[in-house]
């Protein structure tokens, strides 16, 4: 298979403590590692214009933003979209839903309706909404009901981005390949993460994730626009971890 040119971003949550100390210097280090962009999970007190200058100075793009539900509700959605438009980003990804918004069929359907509404309002201001999984979304609900992930994406339009996190899915006992096949065209952004018995056990490319198959699906039926590296091994230096992840992906032709 010939590799496509899907750019590679880093989820800044992976190195958040370093970024809090020196965002500009951290972004330069990320660029030097060979990343094409970053996905934010907080802005460390900086204004959007200042962050955009930092990105432009080192040649990075904003690949997305992890957000709380409240940041996409009511008038906050417009403000969030405007902030991200300055960053050059239109992917507004809900990082997590509280348990009460996904622990029953009825809750999942209400959340799907919410995502659908958010998606329509975001489109009106030039943005897109998506959802990122943890591990609990793949556990069947009471009574053998479908897992939350299926209920959410079977009941939302294709415009709602399915940001599949490979490591979190595996932690939940799910095969990420199944979900990439089940929802073709919806994995616009994919988190590359190992699980391998624990997030601290392996960095990307050093575990048992079937990366060749993941890449093939993303680059054929997935319509994937960005790969986003995330690592949660905090026993090691975070910058060294994400550097190794990037080097391992380069060895795989990515």
Question: What is this structure's SSE topology?
Answer:
Layout: E1 8-11, H1 16-21, H2 23-33, E2 37-40, H3 48-58, E3 61-67, H4 76-87, E4 91-94, H5 105-123, E5 128-132, E6 140-141, E7 145-147, H6 148-154, E8 161-165, H7 166-171, H8 176-182, E9 189-192, H9 211-218, E10 226-229, H10 238-251
Parallel strand pairs: 1-2, 1-10, 2-3, 3-4, 4-5, 5-8, 8-9, 9-10
Antiparallel strand pairs: 6-7
Overview of the molecule:
- With 254 residues, this protein is of the alpha/beta class.
- The protein has helices at residues 16-21, 23-33, 48-58, 76-87, 105-123, 148-154, 166-171, 176-182, 211-218, 238-251, and strands spanning 8-11, 37-40, 61-67, 91-94, 128-132, 140-141, 145-147, 161-165, 189-192, 226-229.
- The chain is 40% helix and 17% strand.
- The strands form two sheets. It has an eight-stranded parallel barrel, surrounded by five helices.
- Strand 2 (37-40), helix 3 and strand 3 (61-67) form a beta-alpha-beta unit.
- Helix 8 packs parallel to helix 9 (211-218).
- The model has no long low-confidence stretch (mean pLDDT 96).
Name the features.
254 residues, 40% helix, alpha/beta, 8-stranded parallel barrel, two-stranded antiparallel sheet, 10 helices
Provide a concise account of the structure shown.
This protein is an alpha/beta fold and 254 residues long. It contains ten helices and ten strands. Helices cover 40% and strands 17% of the residues.
